[in-house]
Each structure stands twice: as structure tokens, then as C-alpha cells.
């Protein structure tokens, strides 16, 4: 699969945009003619030293972030047609503030394009999904650093499968923890004594759980954006470890009951088997059904699905009459 082609098909990259954290792998390089600004954790010179093997791919950074508010850093509301962030949202310290900042930086019909790791198929596999309450707590605290507890969980539960940090198989065969609880304890205690920023995955999601998470934040008034479109990667794809969500304030309100979203999120987790039995036909089918269901949730909530509802009803009535 051509990942770049897939990502560019999700939104219109011809407008003026912001790419967050491109490092040495920008999706939208300025050198290729894209009209974008970039924000990263360091300036270009520092990044070229850090990633010396890929220095030629690093472009000038417009804004250097210390983990604080993007809106405060850029200071220009309504500036962008799109914001693209690949494997960023799981790192932010305050996920509610991050989305709200992006909403303010975007034009009214702008889109936030997110590439999100699927915890089932990466080193977060053994960690629980993140809750809305945890996100609201971070927001209430105006958190700019990950908590010591998050650091402990990250170190204590990070895993690999057959030596790889991502995989495609729906099972836990050959999973190994990379650290031990003693190391996690030491880092936990050090983190309590220092304000130094420590980068971890603070948030873990499956596709359906992410849709529930965003819908709940929107419904409770903490963000304005909903899921405008959504895509997962097929079983067997080398990109199974990530999914794609396009958020926008112009997305229609979600009409799917919370209980259905939560049941779908639970089924996401049930497709992962603790043993090699997951390699049989039934397990493969369960994974494909879960993937299809996640995309169907977004489709059912889309504008096009609502507009064509009368046609589907009429077709069903005609079919019933024979």
C-alpha cells in the first residue's frame, strides 16, 4: 500500500495547512510545493543533528513547541484549511486542549486529519484504552507534562511481538514486555522530582473506541468537532497498526447511541486472541467484521448516509413487495 497516496486521498491538501510533528517524514513537504507551515519539538538545525541519517528530508520549522498550547504558540485563529498530525495525538499531554486549539486555528469548515495508532497492533497492546474521564482530568489540570503514573504505565507495559513494535496478527503470540517494574518504579519516582518533559504514549485507542471518545467529548460540549470520515486498514495490511480520522466542526451530529458505540469498542478488543488460535478462519473473520463495523459507524453518521436514507427505505419496501 502507498501510505502517502492513501493519506492524501483523505482530504484536500491544496489549501493552506499546518503539519504537526513531521520531523524527517513530512507528508506535505514544502519542497514539493505544498502550502504549509510546520510545528515541531525542535528547530530544523536541532532536528538535523538528531536525525543525521535523514537530515536532507528535514525542512525549516515555523513554530517550535514546548508542549504548550498550539493556539498560544501560533496565535492566529481561523488560519488553516487543514491540520495534519500523524502519530501525534497519542503523545499530547492534554488531548482536549489539543483538539480545541486545532478547532480555533482552523477555518470554520477546516479539517483536522489524524493518524492514530491502533493499540491492538503496536507496543501499546497490553495497555487499557484511555477514558474520557482521564482526558477531562488532564484538561481540568491544564496539564503540560505527562503524569508520573503515565510514565510508569508506559515503561511497565510497553511490549513487542517477535521483536517488532508493530504487527498485523490478531493475537498475543510472542509478546514480550520490554522493561520491568523496578525500572518503571525508578522512573516514576524521578518524574515526581523533575518538571522535565518526558515523552510517552499518554492515550491508547481502538478504532471504535476513538469514535466513542470523540463523540462523547463533543456531546458534552468540551469540543465542537465530530468525526467527518473514518478509515481503517484491512486485515493483513502492513499499516494495520494505524487508523485515520478526519474531524471537523462541520461534521453532522452523531446519532448512534452510546451503548452501540461502546459495544463496538468492546468487540474491537475481543478480536485479539491470547493464543495462536487467532490465526484460524473464525478469528480472521472476527477481525474483518470489527474493521467493517468501525467504518460503518462513521458511514451511518455521515451526511451522505442521511441524505440517502429515504432511497434506502423505498428500496427496502419495494424489495419486500417482491
Brief overview, please?
With 322 residues, this protein is of the alpha/beta class.
Q: State which percent range the strand residues make up.
A: 15-25%
Low-confidence stretches: none
**Main sheet: strand order:** 3-2-1-4-5-9-8
Whole-number radius of gyration?
A: 21 Å
Return the string of H and E elements.
HEEHEHEHEHHEEHHEEHHHH
Q: How many strand units?
A: 9
Output the number of helix runs.
12
Would you tell me the overall average pLDDT? Answer: 89
The main β sheet shows up as: 7 strands, mixed
| Oligomerization status of the protein chains | single chain
Distance between the termini: 42 Å
Tell me, what's the shape? globular
Helicity level: 25-40%
Structural class of the helices, strands and pairings? Answer: alpha/beta
What does this structure look like?
By secondary structure, the protein is of the alpha/beta class. 38% of the residues lie in helices and 15% in strands. The chain is built from twelve helices and nine strands. It has helices at 3-8, 44-50, 70-74, 95-105, 132-140, 148-157, 181-191, 207-219, 258-270, 281-300, 303-307, 309-321; strands spanning 17-20, 36-40, 63-64, 80-86, 106-117, 159-161, 175-177, 226-231, 242-248. The strands form two sheets. Strands 3-2-1-4-5-9-8 form a seven-stranded mixed β-sheet. It has a two-stranded antiparallel ribbon with strand order 6-7. Strand 2 (36-40), helix 2 and strand 3 form a beta-alpha-beta unit. Helix 8 (207-219) runs antiparallel to helix 9 (258-270). The longest helix is centred in the C-terminal third of the chain and has 20 residues, at 281-300. The N and C termini lie far apart (42 Å). The model has no long low-confidence stretch (mean pLDDT 89).
Amino acid at each position: 500500500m502507498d501510505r502517502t497516496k492513501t493519506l492524501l486521498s483523505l482530504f484536500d491538501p491544496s489549501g493552506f495547512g499546518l503539519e504537526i510533528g513531521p520531523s524527517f517524514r513530512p507528508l506535505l513537504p514544502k519542497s514539493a510545493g505544498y502550502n504549509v507551515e510546520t510545528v515541531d519539538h525542535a528547530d530544523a538545525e536541532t532536528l538535523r543533528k538528531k536525525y543525521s541519517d535523514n537530515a536532507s528530508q528535514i525542512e525549516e520549522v515555523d513554530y517550535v513547541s514546548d508542549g504548550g498550547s498550539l493556539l498560544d504558540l501560533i496565535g492566529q485563529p481561523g488560519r488553516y484549511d487543514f491540520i495534519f498530525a500523524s502519530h501525534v495525538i497519542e503523545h499530547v499531554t492534554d488531548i482536549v486542549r489539543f483538539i480545541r486549539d486545532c478547532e480555533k486555528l482552523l477555518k470554520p469548515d477546516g479539517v483536522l486529519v489524524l493518524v492514530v495508532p491502533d493499540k491492538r497492533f503496536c507496543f501499546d497492546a497490553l495497555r487499557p484504552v484511555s477514558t474520557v474521564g482521564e482526558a477531562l482530568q488532564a484538561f481540568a489540570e491544564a496539564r503540560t507534562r505527562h503524569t508520573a503514573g503515565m510514565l510508569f504505565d508506559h515503561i511497565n507495559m510497553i511490549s513487542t511481538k517477535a521483536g517488532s513494535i508493530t504487527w498485523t496478527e490478531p493475537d498475543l503470540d510472542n509478546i514480550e514486555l520490554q522493561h520491568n517494574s523496578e525500572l518503571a518504579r525508578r522512573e516514576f519516582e524521578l518524574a515526581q522530582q523533575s518538571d522535565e518533559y518526558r515523552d510517552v504514549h499518554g492515550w491508547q485507542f481502538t478504532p471504535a473506541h476513538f469514535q466513542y471518545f470523540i463523540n462523547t467529548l463533543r456531546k458534552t460540549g468540551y469540543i465542537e468537532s465530530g468525526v467527518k470520515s473514518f478509515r481503517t486498514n484491512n486485515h493483513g495490511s502492513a499499516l494495520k497498526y494505524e487508523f485515520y480520522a478526519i474531524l471537523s466542526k462541520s461534521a453532522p451530529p452523531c446519532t448512534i447511541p452510546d451503548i452501540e458505540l461502546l459495544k463496538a469498542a468492546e468487540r474491537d478488543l475481543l478480536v485479539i486472541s491470547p493464543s495462536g488460535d487467532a490465526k484460524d478462519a473464525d478469528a480472521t473473520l472476527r477481525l474483518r467484521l470489527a474493521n467493517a463495523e468501525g467504518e460503518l459507524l462513521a458511514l451511518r453518521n455521515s451526511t451522505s448516509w442521511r441524505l440517502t436514507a429515504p432511497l434506502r427505505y423505498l428500496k427496502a419496501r419495494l424489495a419486500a413487495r417482491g
